[in-house]
UniProtKB/TrEMBL annotation:
<dbReference type="InterPro" id="IPR034683">
    <property type="entry name" value="IspD/TarI"/>
</dbReference>
<feature type="site" description="Positions MEP for the nucleophilic attack">
    <location>
        <position position="150"/>
    </location>
</feature>
<comment type="pathway">
    <text>Isoprenoid biosynthesis; isopentenyl diphosphate biosynthesis via DXP pathway; isopentenyl diphosphate from 1-deoxy-D-xylulose 5-phosphate: step 2/6.</text>
</comment>
<dbReference type="GO" id="GO:0019288">
    <property type="term" value="P:isopentenyl diphosphate biosynthetic process, methylerythritol 4-phosphate pathway"/>
</dbReference>
<dbReference type="Pfam" id="PF01128">
    <property type="entry name" value="IspD"/>
</dbReference>
<protein>
    <recommendedName>
        <fullName>2-C-methyl-D-erythritol 4-phosphate cytidylyltransferase</fullName>
        <ecNumber>2.7.7.60</ecNumber>
    </recommendedName>
</protein>
<dbReference type="InterPro" id="IPR001228">
    <property type="entry name" value="IspD"/>
</dbReference>
<dbReference type="GO" id="GO:0050518">
    <property type="term" value="F:2-C-methyl-D-erythritol 4-phosphate cytidylyltransferase activity"/>
</dbReference>
<feature type="site" description="Transition state stabilizer">
    <location>
        <position position="15"/>
    </location>
</feature>
<dbReference type="InterPro" id="IPR029044">
    <property type="entry name" value="Nucleotide-diphossugar_trans"/>
</dbReference>
<keyword id="KW-0414">Isoprene biosynthesis</keyword>
<keyword id="KW-0808">Transferase</keyword>
<comment type="similarity">
    <text>Belongs to the IspD/TarI cytidylyltransferase family. IspD subfamily.</text>
</comment>
<feature type="site" description="Positions MEP for the nucleophilic attack">
    <location>
        <position position="204"/>
    </location>
</feature>
<comment type="function">
    <text>Catalyzes the formation of 4-diphosphocytidyl-2-C-methyl-D-erythritol from CTP and 2-C-methyl-D-erythritol 4-phosphate (MEP).</text>
</comment>
<dbReference type="InterPro" id="IPR050088">
    <property type="entry name" value="IspD/TarI_cytidylyltransf_bact"/>
</dbReference>
<feature type="site" description="Transition state stabilizer">
    <location>
        <position position="22"/>
    </location>
</feature>
Length: 218
């Protein structure tokens, strides 16, 4: 059974406040995206599919030459939404197996977590890493709110792993605004989602401070 990794980085990264999308920013001597790909190359993935905005394909190829980055991967044109991008990546999954979908800007994911997600998905059909919410929660607005039990909530991460046939079937659905990740797409198709313990260090680089935190963790 094959193990695929679809790494999604087709966004523009506007919240970073940089003209350059965050997946291309340098982190400890390498672009963020190269760290991410290396994590999967060094772990359990046999095929790496990289989904990028088509306008940055030539820039990425230039970076690969500049940094002498030779990890094998297939470059795919991204879609308008993350949903579209994953769907395009799935077209390149040609053998039966397990698919991990991962955010390009989560460069600190460990090989251990990747392997754990693959193995659990091969056992149960899917595996989604999550960490317990550690902050107090309230629901509502400035004028009225109510306390929520943080014990009932988890922060979801990637890689989210799925049986390839199950994931392809789920992505035949029409897009909905509630599809914020792959687990929400698969859940809507009628499949229960299985959580595995994530890692607090598996941060998503979204804002400038996140890059500083990632540097410290590395």
């Amino acid at each position: 059974m094959s193990r695929y990794a679809i790494i999604v980085g087709a966004g523009k990264g506007e919240r970073m406040g940089s003209e350059l999308p965050k997946q291309f920013l340098e982190l400890k001597g390498l672009p963020v995206l190269m760290h991410t790909i290396n994590r999967f190359h060094e772990s359990a993935a046999s095929d790496i599919i990289l989904v990028l905005n088509v306008h940055f394909h030539s820039y990425w190829e230039k970076l690969c030459k500049e940094y002498n980055f030779n990890v094998p991967h297939l470059l795919v044109k991204g879609g308008v939404t993350r949903f579209d991008s994953v769907r395009k990546g799935l077209k390149e999954v040609t053998r039966k197996g397990t698919v991990a979908v991962h955010d390009a800007v989560r460069p600190l994911v460990s090989a251990g977590l990747i392997l754990k997600c693959f193995e659990k998905a091969e056992e149960l059909g899917n595996a989604v890493p999550a960490v317990p919410c550690r902050e107090s929660l309230r629901k509502g607005g400035a004028d009225s709110s109510q306390s929520l039990s943080r014990d009932d909530y988890f922060l979801v991460q990637t890689p989210q792993c799925f049986n390839s046939a199950l994931l392809k079937r789920a992505y035949r659905q029409e897009f909905r605004n509630e599809f914020t990740d792959d687990a929400s797409v698969v859940e809507k198709s009628g499949e229960p989602i299985h959580l595995v313990e994530g890692e607090t260090s598996n941060i998503k680089i979204t804002y400038p401070d996140d890059l500083k935190i990632a540097e410290a963790l590395l």
